[in-house]
Amino acid sequence: MKIGAIISEYNPFHNGHRYQIEQTRAAGVTHIAAVMSGSFTQRGDPAMFTKHVRARTALENGVDLVIELPSRYSLMSAEGFARGAVGLISALGCVEVLSFGSESGDIEALKEASRAVEFTAHTEEFSMLLKRGRSYPAALNEAMLEYYTPDVAELIASPNNTLAIEYLSALDDIASTIEPMTVKRLGSAHDSDDVGTFASASAIRKKILAGEEYSAFAPVVDAPSADISRLERAILAKLRTMRPEDFERSYDCIGGLGDRLYKAARGARSLSELYFLAKAKRYTLSSIRRAVMCAFLGIDKSFAAEKPAYLRVLGMNERGKEILSAANCSIPIDTSLKALSGTSREAARQANFESRCTDLYSLAFAQPLPCGTDFTVPPVIIDG
After folding, report:
1. How many Cβ atoms from other residues are within 10 Å of residue 286's Cβ?
2. Cα(first)–Cα(last) distance of the chain, in Å?
3. What is the pLDDT of residue 137?
4. pLDDT tens for each residue of 184-226
5. Average predicted confidence (pLDDT) for the chain
C-alpha cells in the first residue's frame, strides 16, 4: 500500500486528469487521495459543477478519496492555494507521494526553480520592481534574470510550473517527508481554446456552456452547470455596498487594488466592465477576479494565516476507505460538515463560513439550491 495525493480542481475532470492518475499509479502509487477545490476555483470563478458531482466523476475515473479544499484556500494566489492544500495532505498523516502536473515534467529542474524563487523574492531588485508597478509574476521573472540563467526563469512563466514550484516550497516549509513527483502536461496549453485528446479545462467549460459535444475530451456529466453570469448582479450589489476599508481587508487587494476596485464597483454595470475598470499593469486578470470574488464572499487577508480545523471527505470508494483506515490525522476528519462543526470553535466558524460560500455559489445555477446543502448533502460512496 503506497498512498499518493493529487491537488486538483477537476473543473471539470478531463482526459489530462485521467492521464495524471494513470502515470501516478505507474510510479507505484496504489491509493490516491485528491484534495479538490469545493465551490470556487483559483481563477476566481464558481466551479462548473457542484463539489459532490465533481467528486463522483473523480471517483469513477481513478481517484479513491476526495477531500475538500475550502474556498478560503481555493480562492488564494498560487502560494496560498498550495499551502492550504499541502497542509490538508500533511494533516491526513499517511500520504507518501504528492503528484502534480507541470509543463516541465522535470522534478529536479522544478526544485531548482523553487529555490531560485525563494531567493529572488527576498532581493532588493524584486522589491524595487514591485514598487515601480510590475505585477508579481513580471517582477519575479525580471529579477530572476539578474541571478539565474534564462532557462530557470522560463520555468516560472508557465501556470502549472508555477503551482508545482509552490507545492515544493510548501513541502519544504513544513519539512515534509512526502515525496514530490511531477507528470508532464500533454496537449493544449492552460486556458487554450485548442482541442485534442488532451483539451484544456477552459476549452471544455466553453463547450459545456455552449451546449456542445465534449465526450471526446472528458467524461460527460449529467448535472446542471454553474455560470458566473448568474451571480453578476449579486456580486455588483455586494461590492457597491462596501467601503474603501472593506476592500483593503479583502484577500489579494494589495498595492492599491482595493482602491481601484472600490472606484470600479461604483461605475461598473457588468463584471467584465468591473474587471476592465480595475485593470492596471501591475495586476493580473486572475488576481483581479480572485479579489472580486473574495470581496463578494468576505474572505479577508487574515484567512491566509488560518490553519484548517478539519478534513472534510466528499467521497470515497473501497480503496478510499483503506486510506482512511491508514490515516493518522492531526485534525478531525469526517464526511459530515455538521459533525465537524461540533469538534471545536474554530471548526464551527470555518464550517459555517464554507456553508455560506456554498449558499451563494448555488445562485450560479439556473435553479438555485436552498441554503444549508453543505450540511445535508451526503458523501459520495462508491462500492466495489
Report:
1. 17
2. 18
3. 82
4. 987 555 555 555 568 889 999 999 999 999 999 999 999 999 9
5. 93
CA distance 67 to 29: 18
Helix or strand run (H / E) with residue 100:
strand 97-102
* CA angle at 41 for the pair 373 and 83, rounded to the nearest 5°: 105
Q: Which residues of the chain fall short of a pLDDT of 70?
A: 187-197, 384
**Strand 65-69 relative to strand 311-316, pairing:** antiparallel
Number of other CB atoms surrounding residue 179 within 10 Å:
15
- Residue 239, Cβ neighbours under 10 Å: how many? 22
Contact in structure between 108 and 115 (CB atoms under 8 Å): no
Helix (H) or strand (E) holding 181: strand 179-184
Per-residue confidence (pLDDT) for residue 140, from 0 to 100: 87
Grid cell at residue 1: 500500500
Class of domain 3-103+161-226+307-381: alpha beta
Cα gap 131→24, rounded to integer Å? 42
**H/E element, 7:** strand 3-8
Element at 249 (helix H, strand E): helix 244-249
CA 114 to CA 261: how far, in whole Å?
32
Contact status, residue 219 vs residue 61, Cβ threshold 8 Å: yes
What single letter denotes the amino acid at residue 364?
A
**Which helix or strand (DSSP H or E) is residue 297 part of?**
helix 285-297
Rounded to whole angstroms, the maximal C-alpha distance in the chain is 58
Cell numbers standing for residue 57:
466523476
The label of the residue with cell 466528499 reads 314
Q: Which amino acid is at 353?
A: F
Do 178 and 2 contact (CB within 8 A), yes or no?
no
| Nearest-angstrom CA–CA distance, 277 and 271 | 10
Q: In terms of C-beta density within 10 A (0-12 exposed, 13-18 middle, 19 or more buried), how is residue 237 classed?
A: exposed
Domain boundaries, the chain: 3-103+161-226+307-381, 109-157, 228-303
Q: How many residues does the chain have?
A: 384
For residue 12, is the peptide bond before it cis, meaning its omega torsion is within 30 degrees of 0? yes
